Amino acid sequence: MEVRVLLRRHLCMHLWAHDSRETEWVSDSEPIRLCFVCLGNICRSPTAEGIMESLIAEAGLQTRIEVDSAGTGSWHRGEPADARAIAEATRRGVELRSRASTFRTGDAHAYDLVLAMDHTNRFDLIDLTPEPELRERIFLLRSFDPALSADDPHDGSVPDPWSGGDEGFATVYDLIEAACIGLLEHVRTTMLIEGHR
Ligand code: 4NP
Fold first, then answer.
1. Is the CB of 169 inside a 6 Å radius of any atom of ligand 1?
2. 196 pLDDT band (50/70/90 cuts)?
3. Where would you tag: which of 93, 116, 142, 147 has the fewest CB atoms within 10 A of its CB?
């Protein structure tokens, strides 16, 4: 995954240098890189990746923000997203194209923000990230939802829908969408400041 990310980053930098239409941002700046992480990388994080890709495209920021996803477990490596996650996303007009990959020790250095779906994912990511300064890139995705409250029924997590029914996938989609809208606003206002990056 790391090599793929770095290659894509290199390609984007190359294309960016030659894209004269993009005059609004600093021309030699690198894209902001986001990685969504859950356990299996077949339900929640691919949904987050697809939703964020769609929001970024709507905002016309495809050259400025890159998204990726991974799992802390490797059982499903190479598989497409779960059919129930694909069905829910399709119903909402979003395509899930990712193939499952595994988040490995040191991968955090390839991203600006690493977004965990639940508390266990976050703790596992911290274990996979020995460097204290890189650990600061790891957040719970839902911490970016402006409507998240102290008495949240899911304790600030996106609950694992894998062993449940279809309705769990609709809930997961709603939670992720609200958080991704807040996340895009955060990236836009604090990370994509003209002249900064
Ligand atoms: P995800 O859901 O972490 O949202 O992709 C899961 C998918 C598979 C498994 C667990 C959670 N599993 O144990 O195989």
1. no
2. low
3. 93
